[in-house]
Structure formats: C-alpha cells, structure tokens
Amino acid sequence: MTASGGTDKALAALAKIATEFSALAVTLPEFLNRSLKVIARELGLVNCAVALIDERGAGRLVVRAASGSAAPLLGKPLSRDVYARVMDAGEAGEIADPESGPCISAPILVHGRPIGLINAYRAAAQISAQDLDLLVIVGRYFSSAIELARLHEQPAAAPQADPLTDLPNEPAFREALEREVRRGQRHGEPAVLLWVDIDGLDAIRQEYGAALGDTLLRNVAKLMRGMLRESDMVARGSTGFLLLLPRTPKRAGVSVAERIRQRARGPVAGRGPSITISLGVGESPQDGAVGEALLVAARSALDEAQRSGGDRVQAARTAN
After folding, report:
1. Beta strands in the chain (DSSP E)
2. Which CATH architecture has domain 6-156?
3. In the predicted model, is pLDDT for residue 277 greater than 80?
4. Do the beta carbons of residue 120 and residue 89 sit within 8 Å?
5. Which of 36, 154, 164, 313 has a 20 to 30 Å separation from 72 between CA atoms?
C-alpha cells in the first residue's frame, strides 16, 4: 500500500527501528534486516534494499540488506554509474536501473559524504512523491545508526597504526586511497601513488641485524613525512611504504619521488651501510581507475625499478 501518514508516520516507524537497535549486541546486518521489516510493515515499502560502499572492495556499492522482491539483490553490487546522481550529488529521486528495475532511491550520508543508499522498488505507476519523502527521512536516520553499528564492529578490525613507524597501516591507507580516487574522478583531478622500498633490506637485516633494519625503516619514514604536504599521506605497507599525493599529476609525482630517492641515499641511520631506495609511480585515473588497480600499477613499476638494479624511480607504463 502507499504510505499515507506522511512525516508523522515515518517518525513513528523510526521510533520502532530505534527500538530494534537499542540492544548494543545487534550487528549491522541484523539492524538493517530488522529495519527493512519495520519499513515494510509501517510504511508499506515492502520491496527495499540497502546498499553500502564496500571500502575494501574497490568502492563498489554492495547490497547489504534486501526485502520482498528485492531479496535476490542481497550481496550483489549496484552500478555506480546508474546511481551517480544519488551518490555524487546526494540527491534522492527516481532511478531507472536496467538490472534491478525502477525504484526510488535516497542517499545515506555521514558528515555530507555518501556511504550508501536505500532503494524502494515498485512499478513506475506506483511510485509517489510521498514515498520518496519517506525514504529520504529513513535515509537520514540510517546514517547515524549505521555509523554507530560500525563503531561496534571496529574492535575486530585491524589496528590503524604501524607500531614500528607510527604510520597508518596498509588497510587504513587503502580506505583513504579509494576515497581519494573517487573524489578525484568526480572533480577531474589526478592523484599519484608512490610505492617505496629500501633496496636489499632483507640482506641488510641478515648482515647487520634486525634492529638496524628497523632503524632504517623508522628513519626513512621520518624523512618522507618531513618532505610531504599536509594533504599527502604516507603509510607502512606490507612491503615498504605507500605514499598518496592528491591533486598531483604523474610528472609532479615523479619529481617528488626523485627528491625522496636522492635524500634517502647514504647511511640514513647514521651508521651501518649506505642505502638506496626504489620507487614506483602510478597516477589515477590513467594507471588505475580504482584504488586496487592503482596499487597494482605502482607495485609493478617498483618491481621493474628493482629488477633494473634499484636506486631509481620508475613510472607505471600506461596500457595503450
């Protein structure tokens, strides 16, 4: 049926949703599924789906909860292109999704940033302006509730800082990289990723000891932090370091990489062997339209630099 109680009815439904979420043990999937049941029962929006950005899956929109005829969408991605108006401009409206059918869609925003959307699927003739207003209200409520649910899930997540260098770790960096790549694409701005590694670090550890190797890593990290802008980000990767330079074209990124390479040469730790570093440089979007692809491009460039003898900067070779 069509929702007829307007804002008051929506607020009454949200009160019931809040009751469902009152137990702190409720996980995000449980909360979303319970909430969709309340929406169906109280607002008549039976065929609904909630899709959230998968920060560790190349920024895809993935359906995390679904009800009614939308249930088969659970776990499936939605096209970011189809929902660009909702996700990029934060505007609710009618969407003609060729994969899942016509729907009304409202964004779920946190601090003005879209983290997902909620859809209600109906035949085109049944979609009303009132339904859309109700969905917008629900989407606004979901924003704070989803963030709270995610906070409860965070204790199981990986730590956000590397204990050796006090830099962000790779999972935290990958999330920031995905956000910056998407932001750059929306505004037509490039971003550069540098993958940095100390040449022959394993051999240095074997000859001079693990403690010296750790000192080298800490000092290289300190050197790079001192050379970067406030908007840049450096992190400890699974191997070496990762640097993100927003609003930077590849040529400027190569220049930054070359300055880092030259400054890092020598006995960075003040004792022990002189070191050299190699750097791979990739640019979004030409070398990778998503964060994962950009990481692969920069890593391939780094491998090429080290195969060529190290102590060099290698830009990714953009495929023709």
Report:
1. 48-54, 60-66, 77-78, 93-97, 101-110, 113-121, 191-198, 233-236, 241-246, 277-284, 313-315
2. 2-Layer Sandwich (3.30)
3. yes
4. no
5. 154
What confidence tens digit (pLDDT) does each residue in 114-173 have?
A: 888 999 987 555 667 788 888 888 888 777 677 666 655 544 444 468 888 989 888 888
pTM for the full predicted model: 0.53
Tell me which of 295 and 319 has the higher pLDDT. 295
Biggest CA–CA distance in the chain, Å, is 77
Q: In Å, what is the CA distance from 103 to each residue of 37, 69, 79, 135, 161?
A: 18, 12, 14, 11, 42
61: which strand partners?
A: 53, 78
Report d(CA 269, CA 253) in Å as an integer.
26
Q: Could you report the per-residue pLDDT of 186-225, keeping only the tens digit for each?
A: 888 999 999 999 999 999 988 888 888 898 999 999 999 9
Q: What is the DSSP string of 4-19?
A: -SHHHHHHHHHHHHHH
Q: Say which amino acid occupies 28.
A: L
CATH number for the 170-315 domain, one of 2.60.40.10, 3.30.70.270, 3.40.50.720, 1.10.10.10?
Answer: 3.30.70.270
Select the more confidently predicted residue: 269 or 181: 181
CA 298 remoteness from chain centre: 18
